[in-house]
Amino acid sequence: KQEVTQIPAALSVPEGENLVLNCSFTDSAIYNLQWFRQDPGKGLTSLLLIQSSQREQTSGRLNASLDKSSGRSTLYIAASQPGDSATYLCAVGNAGNMLTFGGGTRLMVKP
Amino acid sequence: GAVVSQHPSWVICKSGTSVKIECRSLDFQATTMFWYRQFPKQSLMLMATSNEGSKATYEQGVEKDKFLINHASLTLSTLTVTSAHPEDSSFYICSAAAANQPQHFGDGTRLSIL
Q1: Which residue of B has its CA nearest to A102?
Q2: CA nearest B100 in A: which residue?
Q3: Does B25 touch chain A (CB under 8 A)?
Q4: pLDDT for B18-65, tens place per residue?
Q5: Does B96 contact chain A (CB < 8 Å)?
Q6: Do A34 and B91 touch (CB under 8 A)?
Q7: B45 partner at 20 to 30 Å CA-CA among A6, A66, B61, B111?
Q8: Burial group, residue A85, by CB count within 10 angstroms (0-12, 13-18, 19+)
Q9: Residue B98 contacts A where some CB pair is shorter than 8 Å
């Protein structure tokens, strides 16, 4: 059974810092990996989707990498802003378009 | 982009009543819809998967008779929480996916049972 772990569970940083969120998974036979953002009381917004054959994806200040063999992914946020404050969820895509979610990292960026 | 609408966004009801939550794909045909439950400060837990015209597949530990799922068309799935009790209070999120495409998520429904 696939298990997804995110570290740290919570993170508080001053505005402007570059930061890295970590995601690890136990079964490397994945189809893809996605990073989502969730604001309090809201649904999920997809940030980046990395196919199993890819190593990384970039969107603006966000960069996600994937090392399938070691079961790891990182989300890099450059020059963090208070508006980046949210919970970031990592989800591994398996057969049948099923997603297994990590526990999330709650990020607070202080002005 | 693909849009998924979930309704209602928030519902409060008395214990013992049944509550229906709708999930609609607005601009694509969703061959598969997923229902998740999320407790405060926890991640999403998959409750069930439904394919259009078929019975839903429930995850272990999810009561089929408690959480009725209907996926009657390629754009609509409903989750009915029957005889709801306070312990059913939670945040419910649906997602929809076209064939071999990523899931797109609704905005969630906050259910509070008094």
Answers
A1: B43
A2: A97
A3: no
A4: 999 999 999 999 999 999 999 988 889 999 999 888 889 999 999 999
A5: no
A6: no
A7: A66
A8: middle
A9: no
User: Would strands A105-110 and A10-14 be described as parallel, antiparallel, or unpaired?
Assistant: parallel
Q: How far is A42 from chain B (nearest CA, A)?
A: 5
What is the rounded CA–CA span in Å between residue B37 and residue B35? Answer: 7
Task: Please give the DSSP secondary-structure letter assigned to residue B56.
Answer: P
Structure-token pair, residue B45: 């837990």
- Residue A65 in contact with partner chain B when CB distance is under 8 A: no
CA distances to A88, B44, B68, B111 from A41, in Å: 14, 13, 24, 11
What whole-number distance in Å separates Cα of residue B71 and Cα of residue B74?
7
Condensed to tens digits (0 to 9), the pLDDT of residues A17-59 reads 999 999 999 999 999 999 999 999 889 999 999 999 999 999 9
Torsion sign across C-alpha atoms B56, B61, B64, B66:
negative
- In this structure, what are the phi and psi dihedrals at residue B66, rounded to the nearest 5 degrees? -85, -40
The residue count of chain B comes to 114
